[in-house]
């Protein structure tokens, strides 16, 4: 049975659970507890802030192309699902095709999600397969959705199309090789059969795996807001004393071998000579160095080298952009400042939402500042985000209206008030 991954919302890459494709299609066709929110989003329409709020924070999402380990990212891909997801934005009829496994109206009700069964799908050939299948069934698919990690927000379509006996698209590769960047790391080990694809073999050496994050993305950097991202970035200390020399050199060379599938024995020998002169105290014998190099290459051939994620990054920069230090620091300061801002806003909202009116009386800036342990100027700086909401709480105590968006079919005015409250809850 085909399985796919489900997520809390667009903003949450961590896998919530795994569901069967039949269960997913039934949910789209028959609806579930999220149906009132989907109807509300369609009532507000695209584009609108209320539509965006429902779409990005209140509805679960699904990924159809690949299965992942823990969270959705290229480096966490474990296997293809057997499906590929195509996104069609235009409100046009979908041509009849024996390759279409399922199709349904998108959340906006102005586009379609389309599934096709596929064999031999990999991260390397994904974009090519996406394009070929789009042309095969005769649609103008959304190129922005041409990503291995593409997700789609839960929708509803009572007229969902499903053909369990659809044809399978068999992709045939021109060259039977695959990219080091998209290794299926079995327990983070190197696969012995992997070689570079779609790029000439180069003498350039990778010293970290940062470019793995930008295989199908032209972004200049990625920010990890929830927690820092572990990466592989091996390094040699400026001095290694007796007792640690062999293990240290083996570790360093093993990581270089994982990061650079075409690294040569001669390159490792030249590098070892330099390290031996400048780092090892005392120097290793030539016999010891040869033994370490041979051991690394043997384990590489066996597929038993393990990748160590020895560093963490809040922000990962795309090596292809070759940004200067000043540019990098400007981005770091901006992004970290934004995260601090969002954290402060979340603190303020948490206090406001659980405000004890009986014990504390009316909500004021000074009382909030005292409660969260921030200065009054800091609270004033963010007050405009909550001013209207706090005014409602102080005058009418409208908290019960938040739940009415799900329990009763609301008027547009009541829904707008509820959505506004939910926006705050997710800041």
Textual characterization of the structure:
The strands form 6 sheets. Strands 6, 7, 8, 10 and 11 form a 5-stranded mixed sheet that branches. A 4-stranded antiparallel sheet has the order 2-1-3-9. Strands 4-5 form a two-stranded antiparallel ribbon. It starts with a strand and ends with a helix. It folds into 3 domains: 3-170, no CATH class; 199-320, no CATH class; 325-425, no CATH class. It has 427 residues and is an alpha+beta fold. It has helices spanning 21-30, 35-44, 49-58, 126-137, 245-259, 265-278, 286-302, 325-353, 357-360, 365-372, 376-382, 387-396, 404-407, 412-425, and strands at 3-7, 15-20, 61-63, 66-68, 77-80, 83-88, 100-105, 112-119, 151-153, 161-162, 169-170, 221-223, 229-231, 240-241, 280-281, 311-313, 315-317.
């Amino acid at each position: 049975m085909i399985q796919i991954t489900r997520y809390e919302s667009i903003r949450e890459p961590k896998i919530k659970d795994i569901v069967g494709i039949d269960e997913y299609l039934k949910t789209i066709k028959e609806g579930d507890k999220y149906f009132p929110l989907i109807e509300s989003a369609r009532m507000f329409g695209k584009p609108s802030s209320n539509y965006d709020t429902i779409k990005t924070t209140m509805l679960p999402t699904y990924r159809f192309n690949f299965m992942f380990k823990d969270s959705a990212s290229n480096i966490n891909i474990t296997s293809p699902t057997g499906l590929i997801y195509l996104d069609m934005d235009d409100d046009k009829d979908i041509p009849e095709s024996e390759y279409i496994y399922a199709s349904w109206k998108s959340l906006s009700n102005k586009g379609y999600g389309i599934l096709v069964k596929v064999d031999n799908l990999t991260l390397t050939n994904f974009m090519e397969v996406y394009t070929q299948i789009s042309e095969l069934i005769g649609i103008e698919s959304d190129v922005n959705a041409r990503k291995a990690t593409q997700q789609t927000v839960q929708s509803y379509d009572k007229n969902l199309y499903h053909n369990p006996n659809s044809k399978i698209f068999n992709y045939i590769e021109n060259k039977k090789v695959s990219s080091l960047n998209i290794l299926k790391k079995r327990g983070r080990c190197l696969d012995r059969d992997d070689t570079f694809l779609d790029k000439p073999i180069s003498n350039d050496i990778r010293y970290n795996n940062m470019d793995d994050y930008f295989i199908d993305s032209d972004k200049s950097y990625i920010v990890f807001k929830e927690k820092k991202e572990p990466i592989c970035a091996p390094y040699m200390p400026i001095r290694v004393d007796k007792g640690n020399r062999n293990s240290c050199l083996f570790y360093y060379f093993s990581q270089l071998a994982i990061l650079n599938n075409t690294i040569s024995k001669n390159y490792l020998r030249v590098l070892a000579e330099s390290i031996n002169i400048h780092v090892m105290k005392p120097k290793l014998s030539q016999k010891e160095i040869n033994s370490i190099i041979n051991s690394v290459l043997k384990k590489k051939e066996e597929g038993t080298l393990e990748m160590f994620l020895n560093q963490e990054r809040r922000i990962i920069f795309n090596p292809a952009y070759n940004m200067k230090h000043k540019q990098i620091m400007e981005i770091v300061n901006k992004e970290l400042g934004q995260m601090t801002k969002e954290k402060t806003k979340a603190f303020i909202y948490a206090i406001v939402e659980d405000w004890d009116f009986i014990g504390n009386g009316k909500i004021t800036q000074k009382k909030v500042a005292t409660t969260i342990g921030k200065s009054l100027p800091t609270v004033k700086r963010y007050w405009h985000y909550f001013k209207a909401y706090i005014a409602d709480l102080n005058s009418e105590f409208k908290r019960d209206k938040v739940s009415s968006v799900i329990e009763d079919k609301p008027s547009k005015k009541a829904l707008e008030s509820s959505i506004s409250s939910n926006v705050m809850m997710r800041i």
